[in-house]
Amino acid sequence: MKLIADTHTHTIASGHAYSTITENARAAADAGLEFLCVTDHASTMPGAPHHWHFVNQRVLPDFLSGVRIVRGVEANILNSDGELDLPLYVYASLEWVNASLHEAVFKAQNEAAHTQAMVNAMESQLVDAIAHPGNPSYPIDIERVVSAAADLGVAIELNNSSLNGSRKGSEPNCLAIAALAKEKGAWITTGSDAHFSQDVGNLGSVATLIEQVGMSREQVITSSAALFEEFQFKRHSIRQRRLFELGIG
Fold first, then answer.
1. At residue 156, does pLDDT exceed 80?
2. Which residue from 157, 183, 156, 197 is spatially nearest to 64, judged by alpha carbons?
3. Helix pair angle (111-123, 142-152), 10° resolution
4. Is the pLDDT of residue 214 over 80?
5. Percent of the chain beyond pLDDT 70?
């Protein structure tokens, strides 16, 4: 399956990544991608930028090296209430929001707490995708998380880095998540989690997993430009409506 978008990448702004947006865009073009989500770590991650950094992504061009630049963030889930770590008004200007659990921000607790954190983050209506949910450091009730994602229209990320040793032990969890997502009809997105430009668009292990579970192209939002743009437009509209309800706008 050809994948046209990488929805999880980092630049030097994350503090522990090593390439610029320009370098990442060139790598995305070389990899044949049409979309590149710029998802640097949000502010509570050690070394991450101030939230003004994310607001000011408006200065980025829509295209670099012929690749559509999607202005985003990898937001940290702060607690089991699903709170995220940017001021609410910042989300109004973003085109893509990954939400995830990180050891430096959310100390690992138990399956119930991790599950509730992810479900509540999705229910906030601010989130487009749950990133690296197969991380064995954060065991979850896979049935509940995937069912919530399917019901709420949030994408589940298959993370290429997790399948290649960055989070050892992720492979069986990711397989179970992908298989259940196929069964439940949940959306799937694909992220390299690149922290260096040469890994942008490196989605081979994810593609193999998708093929292994026999998932159809219609469930993988990064399998076509039309599907990705339709999903992104719908999620953006949901986020803007929620922010309006919260008095942000």
1. yes
2. 197
3. 0
4. yes
5. 100
Kindly report the pTM of this predicted structure.
0.97
Written as six digits, the tokens of 54 are 């994310």
Nearest to 131 by CA among 94, 160, 164, 108: 160
Task: Read off the pLDDT of each residue in 240-246 and give the average, rounded to a whole number.
Answer: 96
Q: Is residue 54 within 8 Å of 94, Cβ to Cβ?
A: yes
Rg of the chain over all Cα atoms, to the nearest angstrom: 16
Please state the three-class secondary structure of the chain as a single string: CCCCEECCECCHHHCCCCCCHHHHHHHHHHCCCCEEEECCECCCCCCCCCCHHHHHHHHCCCEECCEEEEEEEEEEECCCCCCECCCHHHHCCCCEEEEECCCCCCCCCCHHHHHHHHHHHHHCCCCCEECCCCCCCCCCCHHHHHHHHHHHCCEEEEECCHHHCCCCCHHHHHHHHHHHHHHHCCCEEEECCECCHHHCCCCHHHHHHHHHHCCCHHHEHHHCHHHHHHHHHHHHHHHHHHHHHCCCC
Structural tokens at position 146: 């995937």
Give the mean model confidence (pLDDT) for residues 107-131.
98
**Confidence band, pLDDT 50/70/90 cuts, at residue 76:** very high
Domains of the chain: 5-245 (3.20.20.140)
Helices 204-213 and 170-184: crossing angle, nearest 10°? 50
Amino acid at 128: D
Tokens matching residue 38: 């710029």
Checking if the pLDDT of 249 tops 80, the result is no
